[in-house]
Design goal:
It is a single chain. The protein is an alpha/beta fold. It folds into 3 domains: 1-131, Sufe protein. Chain: A (Alpha-Beta Complex), CATH 3.90.1010; 133-196, Orthogonal Bundle (Arc Repressor Mutant, subunit A); 202-282, Fe-S cluster assembly (FSCA) (GMP Synthetase, Chain A, domain 3). 44% of the residues lie in helices and 19% in strands. It contains 10 helices and 9 strands. It has helices at residues 6-13, 63-76, 81-85, 89-95, 104-122, 147-157, 162-169, 179-193, 207-227, 257-273; strands at 26-32, 37-45, 52-60, 128-129, 138-140, 145-146, 231-239, 242-249, 279-282. Strands 3-2-1-4 form a 4-stranded mixed sheet. Strands 7-8-9 form a 3-stranded mixed sheet, covered by helices on one side. A hairpin with a 6-residue loop joins strand 2 and strand 3. The longest helix is centred in the last third of the chain and has 21 residues, at 207-227. The chain is elongated and about 100 Å long.
Length: 283
């Protein structure tokens, strides 16, 4: 049993503006009986002010679908088309005091019906059925949900899981075969919205950060190679772009120590720290 707010129950038991406006100035439709939810929204609009004077709905669906449609009509009456166009599904849910997560797709249906109705008015009043982008790939074939619809839902509602996406779009809610693809779409969107911070250049690091970065390269890249010949190396000091090191073990008394520092150690540090200005000297 879903937990509904008092306002959801009020709009479900006593829906406002149920019905259909005859000779409507705009008609928007969304959903289908096959998918289990359908909504038809009709509007009466003042042609001079673009203010919505009346709105009525016919819906086939659950309590959440009826309540979302009912409250939507109350929200848009008295608003201009431009003001109404800014209403999101989250606004509809908030107006109801919230909806169960599993029923958020009902508020999405209301938003889409409104978008279709506004498009209908702009096209002279001919009824418009909300359609997903024709060029967008259908991800969920059970409910005919496109990639474009999934991406839009993620952006609009700040979704972070496949389960969230199912609640808002129904995608993945039947056979579940598309869930892996939905996860891939989610990963790409989140990666774009929350890119990893750009790594600071070596010259911009604090002295402590510089020491950590240099020692990491020495420990992981340089020392293992020197250890093969019985040698080693240690960091002595860092001044600006000048790194001072001390050769140890067999490398400490080697006549080629300076050459090793320049041809090997310095080269590794420049490459791994991505700073060609670095200079490595023997302490």
């Amino acid at each position: 049993m879903w937990e509904y707010t008092d306002k959801v129950m009020e709009h479900f038991k006593n829906p406002k503006n149920a019905g259909e406006i005859k000779n409507a100035d705009a008609t928007g439709q969304v959903g289908s009986l096959v998918c289990g939810d359908a909504l038809k929204l009709t509007l009466k609009i003042d042609k001079e002010t673009q203010v919505i004077q009346d709105a009525k709905f016919l819906t086939f669906g659950c309590a959440s679908a009826i309540a979302s449609s009912s409250v939507l009509t109350e929200m848009i009456i008295g608003k201009t088309l431009e003001e109404a166009s800014k209403i999101t599904n989250q606004d509809i849910a908030n107006e109801l005091g919230s909806l169960p997560e599993e029923k958020m797709h009902c508020s999405v249906m209301g938003m889409e019906a409104l978008e279709a109705a506004i498009q209908s008015y702009k096209q002279g009043g001919k009824p418009v059925v909300y359609e997903q982008e024709s060029s967008s790939k259908i991800i969920c074939k059970c409910f005919n949900v496109s990639e474009e619809t999934i991406i839009k839902a993620i952006h609009t509602n700040k979704l972070t899981s496949v389960e969230d996406i199912t609640h808002f779009t129904k995608a993945g809610g039947a056979c579940g075969k598309c869930k892996a693809e939905i996860q891939n779409i989610l990963n790409k969107v989140l990666a774009c919205e929350n890119p990893l911070p750009a790594k600071k250049q070596f010259k911009d690091l604090t002295i402590v950060e510089k020491i950590k970065e240099v020692e990491k390269v020495l420990n992981e890249e340089v020392k293992p190679r020197l250890n093969l010949d019985g040698g080693s190396i240690e960091l002595v000091d860092i001044q600006g772009n000048i790194i001072s090191v001390r050769m140890l073990g067999m490398c400490g008394g080697c006549v080629n120590a300076k050459n090793t520092i320049k041809s090997f150690v310095e080269k590794e540090l420049k490459e791994k720290l991505k700073d060609s200005s670095l200079e490595v000297r023997q302490a």
